[in-house]
Amino acid sequence: MKRLKNLASLLTRPKPPVGTTPADVVHRENKWRLLRYRPAPGQARKFQTPVLLVPSLINRHYVMDLLPGKSMAQDLVAAGHDVYCIDWGTPGDEDRFVDFDDVCDKYLGRAIRHVARSSPRNKTHVLGYCLGGTLATIHAAARPEHVASLLLLAAPVSFTDEGALAAWTRSPQFNVGSIVQGFGNVPWQLMQSAFHMLRPTLTMAKAVGVIDRAANDEFLDGFLALETWGNDNVAFPGECYRQYIEQLYRGDALMQGTFSLSGTPARLENITCPVTCVVFEHDNIVPWQSAAALIDRVRSKEKILLKLPGGHVGAVVSKAAQKNLWPKMSAFWAQHDAAPEAKVTPPPAPSAPRPKRPTRPARAGKAPRPKAKAAATG
Questions:
Q1: pLDDT tens, residue by residue, 225-234
Q2: Is the dihedral of CA 76, 80, 81, 85 positive or negative?
Q3: How far apart are CA 262 and CA 101, in angstroms?
Q4: Which of 51, 107, 137, 230 is deepest in the core (most CB within 10 A)?
């Protein structure tokens, strides 16, 4: 009976309260802004090094702050982390010439530097999700100074897989130049249709799942929150999209070592900070192999590959993620909170001073040889 009642009330059910963890806007530029989540009364920040969340460029940031009681940001703040998040905003027609360097170097770089200044180490942990993880990886490869660690969730770095998305973008019929020239910014409807193409039966599967579990109010709230987020998409700045497709999907420039950020080589081998790479076995958007390829290329002494069951979105925001994945993320950052102390060699035990050698008298008829002057240093 409750199942039928809940199904009947789906259209009139109140909108889910997505993205409601209290936050302050600490930086704003063009369309994007930087949020800093506020701890609840009585909560203390336990760790020195802050955490910056970098969502995908084409999805809203609040997937990381989905619902009260089911929010990654809220849980991380409750664990004592100082948590920031980028909200990329909505690009306008005037942003069609915003390029990859603008987004990945200027915007992300300013966010990282702003967050790092709140730490005595002048560094921040960086978490990147999906395309946000690709941006974070590229930035860390070119500008590692303020990155304390990288934690990547389903972030593609290799684009040679045989998945449908990669095959579509590599097809000669996919003329990215004409798309950008015709639309300016790439419409979200075009990208959304590509994702639907990956799983044509997804809508039907969702409907069956809702009917089966409609009596569960918690499930319905979570389902509607995810649907709200999944249908709240934004356009992709045109020039940035063109470079993204041509250099990464078609040129596989990251794996080939030919990618550069504002003229600076962004080679994966340059990454030496601790890295955790989380991949999902049933991810049909980012095949797990294309994300896991990072581990073999970075030169970090500590690098962890964590392969989990689940898909691209559910495995990040589900109840299982809240119980298992999010605590693992918190523990990783806690482990690398402070810079390692430099090893100091203890001074030798004091001993009796050696007797001074007697000064040898100068030979007759010769003046003592003067000491050489130290060379001046500039």
A1: 888 888 888 9
A2: positive
A3: 6
A4: 137
- DSSP class of residue 116 equals H
Name the burial class of residue 75, with classes exposed (0-12), middle (13-18) and buried (19+) by CB atoms within 10 angstroms of its CB: buried
Tokens standing for residue 7: 């199904």
94-111 per-position pLDDT tens digit: 999 999 999 999 999 999
Q: Which residues, other chains included, contact 165 with Cβ-Cβ below 8 Å and sequence gap of 6+? A: 194, 195, 198, 285
Nearest 5°: phi and psi at 193? -65, -30
Contacts of 223 (CB under 8 A, 6+ apart): 206, 209, 210
* Amino acid letter, residue 254: L
Residue 148 dihedral angles phi and psi, to the nearest 5°: -80, -35
Q: In the block, which residue shows the tokens 């996919």?
A: 174
CATH class of 2-335: alpha beta
User: Model-level pTM?
Assistant: 0.84
CB contact at 8 A, 266 and 260: yes
Helices 217-230 and 202-213 meet at what angle, rounded to 10?
Answer: 160
| Nearest C-alpha neighbor of 126 from the set 284, 312, 275, 340 | 275
Rounded to whole angstroms, the Cα distance separating 327 from 277 reads: 15
With both helix axes pointing from N to C terminus, report the angle between 108-116 and 131-142 in degrees, rounded to the nearest 10. Answer: 70
**How confident is residue 294, by pLDDT bands cut at 50, 70 and 90?**
very high
Is the separation of the CB atoms in 275 and 150 below 8 Å? yes
Q: What is the C-alpha R_g of the chain?
A: 27
Q: From residue 150, give the alpha-carbon distance in Å to each of 272, 280, 358.
A: 10, 17, 62
